[in-house]
Design brief:
single chain, alpha+beta
């Protein structure tokens, strides 16, 4: 029996999330930290922050990001990738996920 590693999938996404106040040095680092904590996310790069709305306990942020995901073949669909990201703590919405290439 041979084991095969799940190949990574490179995606770009438009996400809305909550970044904890005081949890990181920069807003971009906070966005990356929230997304890096999602199961299946291997790497995060914040392309740009598009909206910021401070609240009492956190900062609501809309951002365009580039991600490397590890997702099995059955879930490696547009809906599966969106669901994977939406399951993350602090992720409020995933507005778009596009595959950008193979790692």
């Amino acid at each position: 029996m041979s084991l095969q590693a799940t190949p990574p999938t490179e995606v770009s996404a438009d996400v809305s999330l909550r970044v904890p106040r005081g949890g990181s040095e920069t807003l971009e680092a906070g966005v990356a930290g929230v997304l890096a904590a999602v199961d299946g996310v291997e790497d995060v790069a914040v392309d740009r922050v598009t909206s910021v709305r401070p609240t009492w306990t956190d900062i609501r942020v809309d951002a365009d990001v580039s991600l490397t995901l590890r997702v099995d073949d059955e879930r490696n669909t547009a809906d599966g990738r969106t669901e994977l990201l939406q399951a993350g703590f602090g992720v409020m919405a995933v507005n778009r996920v596009d595959v950008t290439g193979d790692a």
